[in-house]
Amino acid sequence: MKKHLIITIDGPSGAGKSTVAKMLAKSLNYLYIDTGAMYRGVAYAYKTEGITQGTGATTSLNDMETFLKNLSIRFEFGEEAKVFINDVDVSYAIRTPEISMLASSLSQDRSVRTFLTEKQREIGASGHIVMEGRDTGSVVFPEADVKFYLDASEEERAKRRYIELSEKGINADISSVKDDMSKRDRDDSRRDIAPLRIPHGAVVIDTTGIDAKGVTDKLLKYIEGLEHNAGA
Ligand code: DC
């Protein structure tokens, strides 16, 4: 089996993708690519500059291509994804519930998806990556070496999102976290372009009641099994 694998992890919010993708990348000494951070970065830029870019007129979704062309956005991937807009680090600011919702709604736009999908393919082309998101195994890398799809009960996913936000010092109450999450999952799954779905050939894992380390161990075992079979 080749060594520079492309590994994708997709699933709804709160399924544990980010934590597991991070742990998996660390164990394999691979690069962790958080594609959600890229959608969040575009959403943050759109909120802060889209409205005033150029002439000061409001940018409508029709102007998205021009907006993206003029956008100075840069990503750095390490243990945590970093996003820079006009060389300013906005990595913390992109994590608010407001940006979550805006990222989900802008992710329905074809120009935004094309813009970010191209970047994701460039970053991942030579492999050695764990890429996590909603369409990484179905659209970005349909030929990925290993594809996972993580899911969990709605109750548990809402609890995880809530804890994640609290740990980041972001205020939210559990019922609005749950409502936002349900809406976002519905929109992400029903959109016309690159909807959230189980990629063809993906290994599906229900993470309800399993901690991140337990899930990561399952994924590692699966990958080791593939390597073993390929070497046998
Ligand atoms: O994974 P996240 O919560 O950071 O993602 C934020 C939003 O970005 C998500 O609701 C939908 C969008 N997204 C997407 O459409 N495709 C991806 N590969 C990753 C995220």
Description:
With 232 residues, the chain is an alpha/beta fold. It has a single domain (6-212), classed as Rossmann fold, CATH 3.40.50.300. 50% of the residues lie in helices and 16% in strands. The strands form two sheets. Strands 2-6-1-7-8 form a five-stranded parallel sheet. It has a three-stranded antiparallel sheet with strand order 3-4-5, with helices on one face. The longest helix has 20 residues, at 212-231. The mean pLDDT is 91. The structure holds 2'-deoxycytidine-5'-monophosphate (DC). 2'-deoxycytidine-5'-monophosphate binds at residues 13, 35-36, 39-40, 100, 103-104, 107, 133-136, 184, 188. 2'-deoxycytidine-5'-monophosphate binds next to helix 2, helix 4 and helix 8.
The CATH superfamily is P-loop containing nucleotide triphosphate hydrolases
Find the CATH topology: Rossmann fold
The overall pLDDT, averaged over residues, is 91
Residue stretches low in confidence (pLDDT < 50, at least 5 long) are none
Q: End-to-end distance, in Å?
A: 10 Å
Structural Rg: 18 Å
| Text of the CATH class | Alpha Beta
Question: What percentage of amino acids are in beta strands?
Answer: 15-25%
Number of E-state strands: 8
Total number of domains = 1
Biggest beta sheet summary: 5 strands, parallel
Write out the strand line-up for the largest beta sheet, numbering strands in chain order: 2-6-1-7-8
H-E order: EHEHHEEEHHEHEHHEH
The number of helical segments is: 9
Q: What spatial form do the alpha-carbon principal axes imply?
A: globular
Question: What keywords describe this structure?
Answer:
232 residues, 16% strand, 5-stranded parallel beta sheet, 8 strands, single chain, globular, alpha/beta, 3-stranded antiparallel beta sheet, 9 helices, binds 2'-deoxycytidine-5'-monophosphate, Rossmann fold
